[in-house]
Structures are given as structure tokens and as C-alpha cells.
Amino acid sequence: MPVLGSSGLDVFPLALGTNTFRWTASTAESHRILDAFTDRGGNFVDTADVYSVWAPGNSGGEAESVIGEWLAAGGNRERVIIATKVSGHPAHPGLSADNITAGAERSLTRLRTDHLDVYYAHVDDPATPLEETVAAFDRLVQRGLVRHVALSNYSAERVQEWVDVAAALGAAPPVSLQPHYNLLTRTAFERELRPVAERHNLGVVPYYGLASGFLTGKYRSAADAAGTARGALIGAYLTDAGFAVVRELEAVASELDAAPATVALAWLRAQPTVVAPIASVSAVGQLDALLASATLDLSPEQHKRLTAASDAVS
Question: Which of 51, 120, 181, 207 is catalytic?
């Protein structure tokens, strides 16, 4: 299994996203998804304190609670590497020292564990001095509540600033970077963030690896997305160029007797610095296509065709 940056953590080359838990996946189905994922060799579970606040009746933290219930019921803590995030929860936003500490403690309670394997600063908070934020994360590491620090949704400039501040303070450096990156969204990562990740040995764990489901091939027109749970998230992809990428995905998938989602994630996994794309499901039956991506290797010609189709979008 690949190693997550400089952390020493061996992670399955696909991270299970949990933003669907208690949104499009019930608690019972979420537990079945976790069972199936780990039974098939998966060990990397990605969540956040804000998941899934957007679902009616939710207030944030629901996904962590689902995972915590599963861990308590099955004694599965040693089987999984848990990554969660702080700063995006509407009730306690930002990256002040107090919020980071309280956020970690709340996440630990919901997850029913005594440590977080990877703790992400979810969204940059320019209003808080970076020295305060970095020091607060480091104190969690020193207390044994967090094993490794990571960054999500940070610009390349701010990633470099974080690394510099951590070095100056003698604080724990980040080990992972979580950007928005897929076949339809490439430019910002490849031009700016990837060089920083390479320079500092940051394991990249991209989110929206399937472009909110668009790269599964289930949307054939804008009408197909209307009224769906993720319809609002894929509006930018509903273009001729976007659909051309899907057609090329389907062509390669046909050659490999694989699902388009499998091919899309395999392309992403093959990119420099990428350790484990994140993908989520709403039902156990959707897992097979995702898990297959962990062992599917595209030919150079197939990779080139997909990249060329993607170039027209990015």
C-alpha cells in the first residue's frame, strides 16, 4: 500500500469519503458500506466535523457519529486510519486555537476514539494568525490526540507559509494535502499545488475524484441532473467538453471491461503525488467500481487519450 506523505501511514489507494452518511446513505447503509470497504482491504476513511450539515435536519458531525457508532459496535479502530477536519462547522468556524482544540475534542467524542490519525485544517482562515493555528495543531500532536497534521483547500502560497511557520516553531509539519482534483478540474492543482506537494513530500488525497458523480457516466444531459441530490454540484460540468470526457471514459472502460468510475479514479491515482483519491457512495452496491480502481492500471495510450480529452476542459 502507498504511504501517506512523510507520515509513515500505509493507506489503501482509495479513501472512503463519508459526506453521504446520514445524507444520501442511512445510518444502517453507512455501516454496511464501512463493513464492505474494510472487508475488501480498505483502511482509509475520510470525514469532517461539518459532514453532513447540508442534509435536512442535520447540524454537522453526523458522519463522524455514524463512524463512531460503527467503531464501537465492531471494535474496528485498529483496522482503519481516520482522517477528519476542522474549521468548516457552522457552529464553530475558523482556525483559532480555541476552536481547533474544541473541534478536535468534539470529533474525538463523536468518533468514539482517543486519537485522530490525520487532522486537516479544512478551510484556510486568513483572519487568524498562522502561528496561532500551527501551534494549536502541534499541541494536539504533543498531547497524543492527533498523529499527523494535514491541509485541505489551501492555496500553494499558504501551504508554503504553513510549512515555513511549522519549521520556525519546531512544530509538526503537514503530511498530506487535500485538493479539488479530477479529470475535469486540473489546472490549479497541477500548476500550483503539485509542485509544493512534491517539494515537501505531501501525500495528495484529492476530493471530488468523480466530479460529484458526473464521471460515473450516469448524467447524459442537464435534464438528468435536475432535481437530484448532487445536481447543483455538477452544473459546471454539463458542457460539450465535459460530456466528451465521459464518452472517452466509457470507451476506455469498455476496452478494460471496467466501469467509467473505475477508470476515472485509476487515472487520478496514477498522477504524480496522488496517494489515494477520495470517493463516496450511497449504497454498498456502488463500492465495487471504486475498489477496482485500486488495482487497475491504464496503458500509456489510454492515459494519453483521457488526458487529451480532459485538456479541452481544463
Answer: 51
Active site residue 51: yes
Q: Is 120 helix (H, G, I), strand (E, B) or coil?
A: strand
- Copy the grid coordinates of residue 139: 499541541
Residues 85 and 48: beta-carbon distance below 8 Å: yes
CA 82 – CA 36 distance, rounded (Å): 16
Q: Alpha carbon of 265 to those of 5, 153, 182, 197, 269: distances in Å?
A: 19, 20, 8, 20, 6
What single-letter amino acid sits at 124? D
This prediction has a pTM of 0.94
DSSP conformation letters of 55-117: STT--S-HHHHHHHHHHHHHT-GGG-EEEEEES--TTS-S--HHHHHHHHHHHHHHHT-S-EE
Cβ-count burial 99-137 (b if 16+ within 10 Å, e if not)? bbbebbebbbebbbbebbbbbbbbbbbeebebeebbbbb
156-190 confidence digits (pLDDT tens): 999 999 999 999 999 999 999 999 999 999 999 99
Residue pLDDT, tens place only, 71-99: 999 998 999 999 999 999 988 899 999 99
C-alpha radius of gyration, the chain, whole number:
19
Hunting for cell 500553494 — which residue is that?
Answer: 156
CB atoms under 10 Å from CB of 91, counted, come to 11
Q: What is the tally of helices (H) and strands (E) in the chain?
A: 12, 8
